[in-house]
Each structure stands twice: as structure tokens, then as C-alpha cells.
Design goal:
Mean pLDDT: 95
Shape: globular
Strand content: 5-15%
Radius of gyration: 20 Å
Oligomer: single chain
Helix content: 40-55%
Number of helices: 14
Length: about 375
């Protein structure tokens, strides 16, 4: 067994209706005086922020709501939000939403104690995070991102048409507050694509070259929970048990990929997000089975275990046949969830391929993908996912 270090500094607190206690938790248990709610208008319009406000008011907690965050946060949006936070008088940030608000909040909190623009801290930038971030509590409203558990904040650079991250342990949130009741009104399509995003995290971390026994155990547990609950959560959004299981599975998958890493699915999806403005969950959902098909030879035994975790019967099959069942299972799941399965259906054109391939090859975690990939391999994945 290889040497490894497992990290999970973020505390997790899960409970149906937990948001009603947020004011008491922040004020009585942690001693904070004023919360800065970082969110977007979609979360406000969905009525979720109203529930958070009720919880803060019940705990007699002062707060301010900032709802100008956007999907795929840009450098400019992050820097502006960080300035507003700096002048707000808040001593704790509460990120409410999916991956974009949480990623934005991570960068905002980092910039309270580290000078400059977020641009300078992005991968390949001129500055390194040195100081501990302002305290951040996260309430995810989707079951997919896992960002509440990780050290990365993904930011869009519109000038260069790239999505890159600030990654440092100081960005890890202080606590993830998981309240599945907030996800009951999530539309079926968002439930499907974010759920497939969580599955991508679990699978990529499990087969990563950086995988280790603890991240493996968490990855397999998340795969199994998603396989057992995602179809129900999509087809019956009011099923609180399925919602709760998906919420926990997403958080587990987030902890798994923080330690095990990711791979080519995220490399392509992140680039497509910047080039073609495809939502991250949609891109991952679409690309996952095609990338698995290319990666399966990199670790036949683990892909066989993925098939088993997804409920496939591999008895009597050869190792390769059992491994291929994992790919079949994910194609079948995507079909059942009715997510887009062709790049041309989400606005990607073949003219974009060279830029997507270049961005994918520059993705820092491509090095831990189970198969070493050349530009030609990425092109073949894109061709199959396009036709």
C-alpha cells in the first residue's frame, strides 16, 4: 500500500430542516455577530433565502443578503463581491446555492485576508494564498457540486476563455450545513445534471492515480448511493428520503475527490464551460460515459467494482466484461434521466474542438487520469460525444 494523507477539515452537519437553526448555530455555538449571505437571484426567487432569513432571525442573528452572484463566476464578479464583503461589517460568510455561489464565496473569503485580485491567485498566477480565509459556512441547494468540501474555487477568465481555479487548503469552508428540505423544489433537470456531476466526482476520484483507501471507500459509497437514489429524486422530487441520500452522497463524493482527484471528464467539461458556456453539471453528465469508455482499460478491476456499486450483475463475466458493465450502467442512467447525450445538442461545434483539446491538455489533474491521454485521445472522445 502506498503512503497517503487524507484531508477533510470541513465539518459536516446534516439535518432535515437544519436551516431553521442557522442563526443559533452561528451566534450561540460560534459567537459570530453578523452574517454575509452570498447567493444569486435564482436562489432568492426560489424562496430559499427567505427560509435562511427566518433561521437567522429566529437566532437573533444580524445579516446582510448579497444576491448579485452569477453562474460560472468571473474574475470581475469575484473581486467586486470581495470589496462589498470587506465593507459590510460581517464576521462570517454564509454561501447559499450550488457550486457557483460556493466557489465565489470561497474566493471572496480568501481575498479578505490575502491582498490583491483573485486573478493573481489562479493556477499559474503570481501570488500564493498564505493567510487563513474569513470563516465560511456553506448551505448547498443542489446535490452535485461537492464544493462545500473542497479546497478549490473555479473562476472564469473571460478574456482568455478559460476556467481555472484557486486551490489551497485555506479555502476549505469551516462547515457544510446540509439541509435536504431546501432541495425539494429543485427542477428535475437540475436534479439530474447535478446528480450526474456528483457521480462524476465519485467515479473519477475512485479511478484516479491519486486514489487511496479512504477516498476509495467514500467514492464507492457515493456511487452506490447515487445509483440507488438519483432516479427517484428526479422522477419524484418530493421524496425527502431520496433527496437526503443524494445530498449526503454529493458531500461524500466531494470529500472523495478532494483527496483522490479528478480526471479527463472534468478537464473537458471545465474547458467546454469556458468555450461554449455549457453548465458544468450538464457537461459532466454528457461526457462521463464517453470518458469512462476510454478510461476503462486503465483499471479494469475498479471499473468492475463501479458496475457492482451501480447494481449491475457481473457474475460469470470476465474482468473486462464486468468493467464494461460500468460504462453501460452510466449510459443507461443518463438515458433514464433524459440528460443531453450529444455535444451538438448543447451548443458545442466542431470548430471549437481545437480550443477544447488545448484547454483539456492544460488541465492540471489530467496527470492523475487512469490512462495517459494525448490530444488525439481527447479528440476521439469529443468526436464520439458529438456524432
Amino acid at each position: 500500500m502506498k503512503d497517503f494523507i487524507f484531508k477533510m477539515p470541513a465539518r459536516v452537519r446534516m439535518g432535515i430542516g437544519l436551516s431553521a437553526e442557522i442563526g443559533r448555530i452561528l451566534k450561540e455555538e460560534y459567537g459570530y455577530k453578523k452574517a454575509f449571505i452570498a447567493t444569486d437571484k435564482g436562489i432568492v426567487n426560489a424562496g430559499i433565502i427567505g427560509k435562511i432569513e427566518e433561521g437567522l432571525q429566529a437566532g437573533d442573528m444580524d445579516y446582510i443578503v448579497y444576491d448579485a452572484l452569477i453562474p460560472d463566476p468571473t474574475i470581475e464578479v469575484v473581486d467586486e463581491a470581495a470589496d462589498i464583503l470587506r465593507n459590510s461589517g460581517a464576521d462570517v460568510v454564509l454561501a447559499v446555492g450550488g457550486g457557483s455561489p460556493i466557489d465565489t464565496a470561497k474566493a471572496m473569503c480568501m481575498l479578505q485576508t490575502n491582498e490583491g485580485s483573485v486573478r493573481e491567485y489562479l493556477f499559474g498566477g503570481t501570488k500564493t494564498v498564505t493567510n487563513e480565509s474569513m470563516p465560511l459556512f456553506c448551505i448547498p441547494t443542489t446535490a452535485g457540486t461537492g464544493s462545500e468540501m473542497t479546497a478549490a474555487s473555479v473562476i472564469t477568465n473571460n478574456q482568455e476563455k478559460t476556467k481555472v481555479s484557486v486551490t489551497h487548503e485555506n479555502l476549505i469552508p469551516k462547515m457544510a450545513l446540509i439541509d435536504p428540505s431546501l432541495q425539494l423544489g429543485m427542477p428535475a433537470f437540475i436534479t439530474a445534471t447535478t446528480g450526474m456531476d456528483a457521480l462524476t466526482h465519485a467515479i473519477e476520484s475512485y479511478v484516479s492515480l491519486n486514489a487511496e483507501p479512504i477516498s476509495d471507500a467514500m467514492g464507492l459509497a457515493a456511487i452506490r448511493m447515487i445509483g440507488e437514489n438519483l432516479r427517484t429524486a428526479v422522477s419524484d422530487g418530493s421524496n425527502i428520503e431520496a433527496r437526503a441520500n443524494m445530498a449526503v452522497a454529493s458531500t461524500i463524493a466531494g470529500a472523495a475527490f478532494m483527496n483522490g482527484g479528478l480526471g479527463v471528464v472534468h478537464g473537458i467539461a471545465q474547458t467546454i464551460g469556458a468555450v461554449a458556456h455549457v453548465a458544468h453539471g450538464t457537461a459532466n453528465a454528457l461526457l462521463l460515459p464517453y470518458c469512462m469508455k476510454r478510461n476503462v482499460v486503465g483499471n479494469l478491476e475498479k471499473f468492475r467494482q463501479i458496475a457492482v456499486a451501480l447494481g449491475e450483475n457481473v457474475d460469470g463475466l470476465t474482468l473486462r466484461e464486468g468493467a464494461d458493465k460500468a460504462v453501460e450502467a452510466v449510459f443507461k442512467l443518463a438515458e433514464d434521466l433524459r440528460v443531453p447525450m450529444k455535444l451538438k445538442d448543447v451548443g458545442v461545434t466542431k470548430e471549437m474542438f481545437p480550443e477544447i483539446i488545448e484547454g483539456t491538455m492544460a488541465y492540471r489533474l489530467l496527470a492523475v487520469n487512469p490512462c495517459k491521454l494525448a490530444p488525439k485521445d481527447v479528440e476521439e472522445i469529443l468526436e464520439e460525444a458529438f456524432a
